[in-house]
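Students often ask why we bother encoding 3D structure as a string. The short answer is that it lets us treat folding as translation between two languages. Here is a chain of 211 residues written in the first language.
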Amino acid sequence: MGLEKKDAKAALEGVMPWLAPTGKAAAKALKKLDRPLLTWTQESQAYLFDSAAHYAEFADEPGGLSPLEKKIAALPPRREWRMERIWTPDEESSEEHDAAYEKANVTIGGRLLHPRDLDSYATFAYEYAGLEDEGDFTDAENGTGDLTTALAWAAAGVCVLQQSLPYPFRDVLLYGDTDNRPAHRILFAYASLLRLKDPRKAAPWFTALGS
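And here it is in the second language, the structure alphabet:
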């Protein structure tokens, strides 16, 4: 038996949309993926994220909670998940890390990257959109950059992320956990770039990201 439209909508609140790997970049990324990113969660009640309690701390701030925050605060307690993080090499990374990262590199869409490095997908997405980072979407809104290619790279990163999560994913990737930050960055990149093309389709991604 099917659900009533209102009940079906309520059941999907906070659920991360599922993105099919239909684009060339996403299909190539999954083909090159040696294994999904590892994830962990606890069954214990002590590891449930209470949205209402979390957002109650911000209810008295000027302006109160936004409509999106109120929607998320109404969601039931959900399990907290933690993800394996692949660190993009920088000036502080060790020679051993740099060598292991380089060994794992593959070519996707003419770009060299570690297939499980979510930050790389976000970086390339912003680059093609004509942005330095997620802080300013002015250029993208004005048509500077290649939004189609940018979205394709962001979608590829989201598809890699989704290989590590159950479907439907109703739970929480806490932003406070540093290892979860790349997952948030690629989801935000995809949602923000999609918003420029179709705000309605982008809305559930922002809800899932905020929850």
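Translate back mentally: The first strand starts at residue 39 and ends at 41. Keep this in mind for the problem set.
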